[in-house]
Amino acid sequence: MKKILVVFCFLMLCEVLEAQNHIFNYSREGNVTAIAELLKLKKANVDTTDHKGYSPLVLAVYNGHMDVVSLLISHNANTDTQDKSGNTALMGACFKGDLKMVRMLVEAGANIDIRNYNGATALIYASTFGHGDIVEKLLKQGADLSIKDDRGNTALDHARMQGNRELLEILR
Length: 172
Prior knowledge:
mainly alpha
């Protein structure tokens, strides 16, 4: 009887682990229907992370799948989960320049001033990559202009280094 119980538990664990792997793939692919089914059956955790520290939310943001991001947020995905570099979904959206995604994450409560392991914030990413519309959005949400990355540079410094006059005006 004990052997049967051990085998049953092992099979259940295998099924859960396989479902977790599926949610990562489905998040990359944008398969909202499959993710919804996994979540409905409680076969996946929205806040699990893969070997690189990526959560399903981070993967969906990096791959531009707005509908998957919306679904994961509606299932209370942690918007501030950090990957192994300390980057969040919001930082990914700022890097990519996706204002709609930034809006969705901010409205869901993403911490705009969280720092990655190099000290960068979402505002620093948006500034570095020249996304003025996102810089404006983050500033309206109260992003801290005084935060410096590990090299001692603020978002304004990054705009200056990029020679981006538009951002310099916005950040001043």
